[in-house]
Design a protein that fits this description.
single chain, alpha/beta
């Protein structure tokens, strides 16, 4: 059943991000009323803030940066958060990242700094916040359902720079800089709002953003737009619990891909660009909580095919709950390099260009 959910999710990705054809038109027609209802709810919420009926809460004592997007995932938001958090930390600031921890099984508020204590598992704090905590030494990661409350607690604990993860739709919290991450490879998908398309808001909502962060692909720009902020999100390392290799190690290797992502096709394309020979794959729905039986089954499939079992850094946070399998699972790490716009971002966020972070050691 879980594998079936992944297959359905993969087909939904194709429906959202590829031109409609055949049965897709009928399916879109069925979903359109729900998209119109969703659009009305989103418009009402935004209208209330535009007219001042509702006002964002200002948390004094901190500079607040939001990093978000306008579709349901896969744009590269988390690597951008990690990059910015490490940049702020390098500039001498006390940094906190605020996250809802999507997909976790707890509503408890966590405050984690990786080097101070053991990091809770992904089931408790969410896969993305756990990944951020482990990749951002010295940065506090706050996880909880209310980001305004998290901001207050983080400031009280001494943070003077806050990053609101997935914060573009968090209108209730004032931010000094609002960054929206967009991926040139997929653009706005089919252009429709959920559930008929991948968008959370209309494209016109981008006028609220301080900056558009374009994830460059060196291929067709499906966004049909440009921005002074451009970044390359690149695969920087390959590792398991015992060894580290450059990503070139995958060239001409037999690979079995394991993922639970919003856009699993992007992971497959990344492996293909590295020259890997993909002999099998197993997709689950985004943020899927892997069971021990599922991981065991995938490990056995990869071994039977004499293939390296490869997953993403985000997915690894959930796989890590089963340490007995870790020697058999290889992880691809992604880093960010700003191509254009560093001085502009530095000025807006009061940071030093000289402190731009490079790839972190694994």
């Amino acid at each position: 059943m879980k594998k079936l959910e992944g297959e359905v999710h993969s087909k939904l990705e194709q429906f959202w991000y590829k031109p409609l054809q055949g049965f897709g038109y009928f399916f879109a027609f069925l979903l359109l009323p729900f998209s119109l209802l969703f659009a009305s709810i989103v418009a009402l919420k935004n209208w209330m803030y535009t007219l001042g009926i509702r006002k964002p809460k200002v948390v004094s004592g901190a500079f607040v940066v939001s990093v978000g997007n306008i579709h349901v995932g896969g744009a590269g938001k988390t690597p951008a958060v990690i990059f910015l958090a490490n940049w702020m930390k390098a500039c001498g600031h006390k940094v906190a990242v605020l996250s809802r921890g999507y997909g976790r099984n707890s509503r408890e508020i966590f405050c984690v700094r990786a080097e101070e204590k053991s990091v809770p598992n992904a089931e408790a704090m969410g896969d993305e916040p756990r990944m951020i905590a482990l990749r951002c030494p010295g940065v506090f990661v706050w996880v909880g359902p209310n980001k305004v409350e998290l901001a207050k607690r983080a400031c009280k604990a001494g943070a003077n720079y806050l990053i609101v993860d997935d914060g573009f739709q968090t209108r209730g919290l004032h931010r000094d800089v609002d960054i929206v991450v967009l991926d040139e490879a997929v653009g706005f998908g089919n252009g429709h709002l959920l559930p008929c398309g991948p968008l959370r808001e209309k494209k016109s909502s981008l006028c609220r953003a301080s900056f558009l962060w374009l994830r460059k692909t060196y291929s067709t720009n499906r966004l049909g737009m440009s921005s002074p902020i451009e970044a390359e999100h690149y695969l920087s390392g390959l590792w398991n619990s015992h060894q580290h290799f450059p990503v070139e190690h995958l060239k001409q290797k037999q690979v079995f891909a394991l993922s639970a992502l919003a856009r699993p096709s992007a992971f497959i394309q990344s492996l293909e660009r590295l020259g890997a020979n993909i002999v099998g794959n197993c997709f689950f729905k985004d943020h899927h909580p892997f069971s021990k039986e599922e991981i065991s089954c995938v490990v056995k499939q990869a071994e039977k095919m004499q293939a390296l079992l490869i997953t993403t850094e985000k997915d690894f946070q959930r796989v890590a709950s089963y340490p007995e399998f870790l020697p058999s699972i290889w992880v691809l790490t992604m880093d960010v390099k700003l191509l254009n716009g560093a001085p502009l971002l530095a000025k807006a966020m009061k940071l030093s260009v000289d402190k731009l972070p490079g790839p972190l050691p694994l």
